[in-house]
Amino acid sequence: MFSPEEINQFHQDGFVVARNVIQGQELSALQEAASRITSEGIAAKDETNHLYYAKSDDSRTYFRSERMWDRDPIFQAVTVNPVLLTHYGQLYRSSVYANR
Fold first, then answer.
1. Positions in the chain whose pLDDT score sits under 50
2. CA 72 – CA 61 distance, rounded (Å)
3. φ, ψ of residue 14 in degrees (nearest 5)
4. What is the DSSP letter of 54?
5. Alpha helices of 1-100 — where are they, by DSSP H?
6. What's the rounded Cα separation, in Å, for the pair 92 and 11?
7. What pLDDT shows up at residue 52?
């Protein structure tokens, strides 16, 4: 769970890091999928799901990948991780009560 200080940081900065929530086999699968997709983006294998910066010399540099939920089931799985949802539910509840 987030500490009161982390919750305050979230309200101040708009983000907070949930450390050690994704672990073990789930973390390994996530890292493997992210590495594969990043490598595809760098190699420009699938230009419909990656974004690139155009340079002045007409070359391009890989910027980011999109549509991750459609790219590998692990991205869907980690977004419904029960520990992650509990952590971020804590932030939602604190926001609701803070705005009363």
1. none
2. 23
3. 85, 5
4. E
5. 4-13, 24-42, 68-71, 73-79, 82-98
6. 10
7. 81
Q: Quick one: pLDDT at residue 100?
A: 53
Phi/psi for 70 (5° steps) reads: -85, -10
- Tell me which residue range forms the domain holding 65: 4-98
Amino acid code (one letter) for 42: I
pTM above 0.70, yes or no: yes
Tokens encoding 3: 């500490």
| Overall number of domains in the chain | 1
What residues have CB less than 8 Å from 63, skipping those under 6 apart?
A: 50, 51, 52, 53
Within a 13 Å sphere around the CA of 48, how many CA atoms are in the beta-carbon half? Answer: 2
Q: What is the reported pLDDT for 43? A: 84
Degrees, nearest 5: CA angle 35-37-38:
65
Taking the CB of residue 37, how many other CB atoms lie within 10 A of it?
21
Distance of alpha carbon 25 from the chain centroid: 17
What pLDDT, on the 0 to 100 scale, is given for residue 66? 85
